[in-house]
Amino acid sequence: MFPWGHLAFGYVLYSLTRRALGVNTIAGREVIVLALATQLPDLVDKPLSWSLSVFPSGYAVAHSVFVAVPLGLAALAVGWKYDRVRLGLAVLVGWWSHLVGDVMLAVLTGGAYTVTRVLWPVVVLPGSHSELSFVEKFVYYVGEFIELLGSSAGPYVFAIYFGPLLLAAILWLADGAPVVRELWDWAADPH
Fold it and tell me: Is-contact 60 49, C-beta < 8 A?
């Protein structure tokens, strides 16, 4: 899943979770924390694998349920203790949604290593055995994605990748456009 897919999927889950809890307003700082948390596994594991060769694949410590579950719960507990439970929830939902999104995408696209990709260190996935740099790998994966969009599976792939983005945009607007709303309010009255 690409970064914007993780962000969209995480926002959808966070917005729906907040609604289920009876809270309809989302603050901009929650969205910023959520956005960072949805990217956290890739920001940790991809450089450690692709650039530093610490792990054979980009699915390692930060993609592991054995790390994400206790640390996500710890973030929620710290948020609770310091009366910032919304920020703790944003970390938990953002991080966990990343793992769920990776597994769901692998299942939907028939990819290898579905659930096992989040079971590090019990399961260590093989590497790509590529000598490409971090940037070259990213460009390679974007190229593969564009090629896939042009294939017969293109409409299906488009729906999987961009459906959550559309839903997230709709929910974000319904939530009052957090972050942009605060910036607008500040610009209108910076005092």
Answer: yes
| Dist. CA 46–CA 115, nearest whole Å | 18
Q: What are the structure tokens assigned to 170, written together?
A: 């709709």
The secondary structure of 94-159, three-state, reads HHHHHHHHHHHHHHHCCCCCCHHHHCCCCCCCCCCCCCCCHHHHHHHHHHHHHHHHCCCCHHHHHH
Tokens at residue 21, please?
């809890």
Burial status of residue 155 (CB atoms within 10 A of its CB: 0-12, 13-18, 19 or more): exposed
DSSP at 176? T
Which of 83, 95, 85, 115 minimizes the C-alpha distance to 44? Answer: 95
> Is the CA virtual torsion 141, 147, 150, 154 positive or negative?
negative
Annotate 15-78 with DSSP letters as a single string: HHHHHHTT-----HHHHHHHHHHHHHHHHHHHIIIIIT-SSSSS-SGGG-HHHHHHHHHHHHHH
Are the beta carbons of 87 and 32 closer than 8 angstroms? Answer: no
Q: pLDDT tens, 113-138?
A: 889 999 999 988 887 656 778 788 88
* Global pTM value: 0.88
